[in-house]
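Inverse folding, one chain.
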């Protein structure tokens, strides 16, 4: 019997598998396809990402450094409202290679990482959990003391054990233009209902274009409008769900959710790489597979760390739906040098931000 079976080897699952293995636990991690594919989300992350990957991996992952963002009410020909720092705010990385790097780090730590394992059933018992997976047309069964559901916004684990759904699922799309772009500002367009569209320069890797919107909206049509205003042809189109709003509980008797499966994401950007890995670290610190009651300690720990940021993130997101005259006035008043951390909305009230605002 394994101490933990981890379902899903994205950033959250790989991070948990690595840290749990480093702590001496017997860990099996299952990925339904090939690690890193299909592409799940944008590679625009805060510089905190380097705290979570091996030092030697930075050269392979790094694509571009970002110092700010140009916010626009309309398309690329409308007035830009720049928000920036004098030092780099964020980096653009190879998103597929990030997953592979984190999975390899988990293997190096002693976790058994297996690809091509599609989990079809999760059953909790008094003393453990049975996980069934489809492997090349055959069926395999694994026993574990606990299961970590790290299998994304449409989580099979979450549904199998009856945990509640995220508050909302957005439909996100992105694609790429191969023309190199080493500029150091991203572009944000408040042209999408209840969210935004973006353009991210990726250095030699080209440019990423994307947007997200509530389900039912004509997302592909809006994406075509976005790329049309930039007069670009894109390729490698990707589409997926973005969970917003954690459910009231992410733990059951012997199962816990981490990352997108738990909607541990930023409501104002949809990004969840750093929040998911932060929650994974809390899970390793708090959960003892021989003591199911420690699942409650995980719930408390990750919510204490992230819940305020998520709540404030919801308030930031509301600004995307304000009337255009209000948006225009707000952007004009707030633009310029900032002191905000892109993962922490609470930094809007930091001494650094207040100093930047009044300078």
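Residues assigned per position:
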């Amino acid at each position: 019997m394994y101490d933990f079976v981890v379902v899903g080897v994205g950033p959250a699952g790989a991070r948990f598998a690595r840290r749990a293995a480093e702590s001496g636990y017997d860990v099996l991690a299952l990925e339904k396809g090939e690690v890193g594919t299909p592409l799940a989300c944008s590679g625009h992350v805060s510089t905190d990402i380097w705290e979570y990957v091996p030092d030697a991996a930075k050269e392979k992952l790094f694509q571009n450094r970002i110092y700010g963002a140009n916010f626009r009410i309309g398309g690329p020909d409308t007035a830009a409202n720049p928000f920036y720092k004098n030092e780099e705010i964020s980096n653009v990385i190879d998103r597929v290679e990030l997953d592979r790097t984190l999975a390899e780090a988990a293997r190096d730590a002693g976790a058994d990482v297996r690809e091509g394992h599609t989990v079809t059933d999760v059953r909790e018992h008094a003393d453990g959990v049975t996980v069934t997976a489809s492997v090349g047309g055959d069926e395999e069964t694994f026993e574990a003391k606990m299961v970590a559901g790290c299998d994304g916004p449409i989580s099979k684990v979450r549904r199998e054990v009856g945990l509640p759904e995220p508050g909302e699922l957005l439909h996100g799309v992105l694609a790429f233009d191969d023309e190199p772009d080493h500029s150091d500002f991203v572009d944000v367009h408040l042209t999408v209902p209840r969210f935004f569209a973006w353009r991210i320069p990726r250095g030699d890797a080209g440019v990423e274009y994307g947007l997200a919107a509530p389900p039912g909206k004509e997302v592909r049509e809006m994406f075509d409008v976005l790329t049309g205003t930039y007069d670009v042809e894109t390729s490698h189109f990707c589409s997926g769900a973005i969970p917003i709003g954690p459910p009231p509980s992410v733990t059951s008797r012997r199962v816990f959710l981490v990352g997108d499966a738990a909607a541990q994401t930023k409501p104002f950007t949809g990004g969840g790489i750093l929040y998911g890995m932060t929650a994974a670290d809390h899970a390793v610190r708090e959960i003892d597979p021989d003591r199911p009651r420690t699942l409650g300690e995980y719930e408390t720990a990750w919510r204490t760390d992230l819940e305020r940021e998520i709540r404030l993130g919801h308030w930031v997101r509301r600004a995307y739906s304000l009337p255009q005259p209000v948006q225009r006035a707000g952007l004009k008043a707030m633009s310029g040098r900032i002191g905000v951390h892109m993962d922490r909305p609470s930094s809007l009230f930091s001494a650094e931000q207040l100093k930047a605002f009044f300078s």
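The mean pLDDT is 95. DSSP finds nine helices and 18 strands in the chain.
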